[in-house]
Amino acid sequence: MSARSIEQPILVALDVATIETALNLVGLLQPYVGGFKVGLELCTALGTPQVVEAVGKAGGALFLDLKLHDIPNTVAASVRAVCELGSAVRMLTLHCQGGAAMLRAAVAAAHAAPQRPLLLGVTVLTSIDGEALHNELGVGADLETHVVHLARLAQACGLDGVVASPHEVAAIRAACGPELLIVTPGVRPTWAARDDQRRVMTPTEAIAAGADYLVVGRPITAADDPVAAAARIVTELAR
């Protein structure tokens, strides 16, 4: 039941179409970053076990961003299957919106395994702003209040951490204390484009706000020189 963590704070998002592209990035970037996020695009194209095996053999620590969201029994079974994929999988996401019963079922399944990844609850996607939260999703609370509510729910259900926009990191840290891990997408250096992310912050600002891990994708993977881009972020954080 021991959890496997990642030492360095930068997690590179491998949101690419082919495993060849992903493995090339792993080979280039592994010396500079803590691990690699793989999500629905690559796992749907190739299959989750195949992706985990390939990236694991290449030496990459995996943040498996599956965002599980289903009835408790189905999510628990999925967590058990992920735990059997091996030690390369260090983190796994599931949606806090699935509710307490689903979250607790996931925690129970993970803790029953001989080894497990860290379980992270996704709060509100960084592509959702306050207007979309109210008008499209029908949530009455303001965005920060809703995110903190979901983070507290995740913590109460026994999850190791949450995934949240950098703009909610400080509020989560104040509400949940230092023990809850916070993984932050929506991180953009000042020299990178925002793309489709609405709630963004620089890597240095996100760490200062209380984030433990930073998910960085296109500013590194779409750069003319991905290694130089990753090294630049590492240097900025070191300062």
TrEMBL record:
Record-listed E.C. numbers: 4.1.1.23
Reactions catalysed according to its record: orotidine 5'-phosphate + H(+) = UMP + CO2
Domain Orotidine 5'-phosphate decarboxylase: 9-233
GO MF annotations, alphabetized: orotidine-5'-phosphate decarboxylase activity
Pathway annotation: Pyrimidine metabolism; UMP biosynthesis via de novo pathway; UMP from orotate: step 2/2
A Pfam family: OMPdecase
Active site location: 67 (proton donor)
Enzymatic class: lyase
Entry superkingdom: Bacteria
InterPro entries: Aldolase_TIM, OMPdecase, OMPdecase_AS, OMPdecase_bac, OMPdeCOase_dom, RibuloseP-bd_barrel
Keywords: Decarboxylase, Lyase, Pyrimidine biosynthesis
Keyword set includes Lyase: yes
Binding residue positions for substrate: 15, 37, 65-74, 126, 188, 197, 217-218
Quaternary state and interactors: Homodimer.
Family: Belongs to the OMP decarboxylase family. Type 1 subfamily.
Function: Catalyzes the decarboxylation of orotidine 5'-monophosphate (OMP) to uridine 5'-monophosphate (UMP).
PANTHER family recorded: OROTIDINE 5'-PHOSPHATE DECARBOXYLASE
Protein name: Orotidine 5'-phosphate decarboxylase
Organism this protein belongs to: Candidatus Chloroploca mongolica
